Amino acid sequence: MNNLDFYVRVLGMRLIKKTVNQDDPSVYHLFYGDEQGSAGTELTFFEIPNMGQKYEGTNDIAVVSLRVPTDAALTYWRERFETFQVPHESIQTKNGRAVLPFQDFEGHKMELVSDELNDGVKAGVVWGDSKASTEHGITGLGPIQLKVKHADRTARVLTEVLGFKEIQAGTFDETTPPRVFSTGQGGTGAEVYVYETENEPMVRLGRGGVHHVAFRVTDEEELRQWIRVLTNAGFSHSGFVDRHYFRSLYFREANGILFELATDGPGFAVDEDAAYLGEALALPPFLEDKRASIEARLTPLPNPRTEM
């Protein structure tokens, strides 16, 4: 099984952009999301051939969660995971919500989280051509779970710099629950869980690991304000980065985890018809004159709408 097969055929997500790593155009950068590739629904992967497996440890983006509409959806997914032999645990509770932990084909730790009680950020829309159930399908990103050696340091970055609020956590089926932070409208799509694991070794990233987590900002003007905020707070950062589909800023929080601030637009339909997102290789303008040589080095991928 490969990345496209798992996320499109098993999880039923839409491939919303098939492009390349802008820093190494010889490999793919694949974006998955909801029907329109809405901000807050995007999960992305770099192709890195021959990379070794991740070694678990602290100072890590430990778990990424994906939203589904209801508690009943988790039963559907548990049965689907059994059919496709996807490693998974039992349905359990985190912050008062039902969740289903699982792993993808490379050992990437993930969870499906029910939106049944959500009263915050709205979810996206399930892809109409999803290979899984459109009734129970994935609608966006849920809480991000961080493991860090010093929770107070990450907490200060989240609250004093980025403007998150630490909130009273709900029920966790865990011996040591995390600290919970929320931003914006709150709810399932706007939370970060921080677990303190000071006795673990440092994580060593590899296959199944997460390189960075992105937080939404409205537009380029707001992003430039954040550049000033981070500079004034003494953080080293990337400065303004134009990714064509969005604008970004990268920095490491106090435990060394890489954070990205990314604008909601221009969006993935800036260079493709929204009805055909992800079906052809899309390149930013500065790489377009190299298209022939780039395509020659890439392994062709099937059309996820018509060939899978």
Oligomerization category of the chains in this entry: single chain
- How much beta, percentage-wise? 25-35%
Class from secondary-structure proportions: alpha+beta
The count of domains is 1
pLDDT averaged over residues: 97
Could you describe the largest sheet, including whether it forms a barrel?
8 strands, mixed
How do the SSEs run, as a string of H and E? HEEEEHEEEEHEEEEHEEEH
Percent range of helical residues: 10-25%
User: What is the count of β-strands?
Assistant: 15
Domain VOC: 1-115, 140-264
Protein name: Glyoxalase family protein
Pfam families: Glyoxalase
Short description:
17% of the residues lie in helices and 30% in strands. It has helices at 3-10, 71-84, 151-161, 220-232, 291-297, and strands at residues 14-21, 24-33, 43-46, 60-68, 92-94, 97-103, 109-114, 140-148, 165-167, 179-182, 191-196, 213-217, 241-242, 246-252, 258-266. β10 (179-182) and β11 (191-196) form a beta hairpin.
List key phrases describing it.
eight-stranded mixed beta sheet, 2,3-Dihydroxybiphenyl 1,2-Dioxygenase, domain 1, globular, alpha+beta, single chain, four-stranded mixed beta sheet, 308 residues
Task: Tell me what you see in this structure.
The protein has helices at 3-10, 71-84, 151-161, 220-232, 291-297, and strands at 14-21, 24-33, 43-46, 60-68, 92-94, 97-103, 109-114, 140-148, 165-167, 179-182, 191-196, 213-217, 241-242, 246-252, 258-266. It is α+β, with helices and mostly antiparallel strands and 308 residues long. The protein has one domain: 2,3-Dihydroxybiphenyl 1,2-Dioxygenase, domain 1, CATH 3.10.180. Helix content is 17%, strand content 30%. β6 (97-103) and β7 form a beta hairpin. Strands 5-6-7-4-8-11-10-9 form an eight-stranded mixed beta sheet, covered by helices on one side. A four-stranded mixed beta sheet has the order 12-15-14-13, with helices on one face. A three-stranded antiparallel beta sheet has the order 1-2-3.
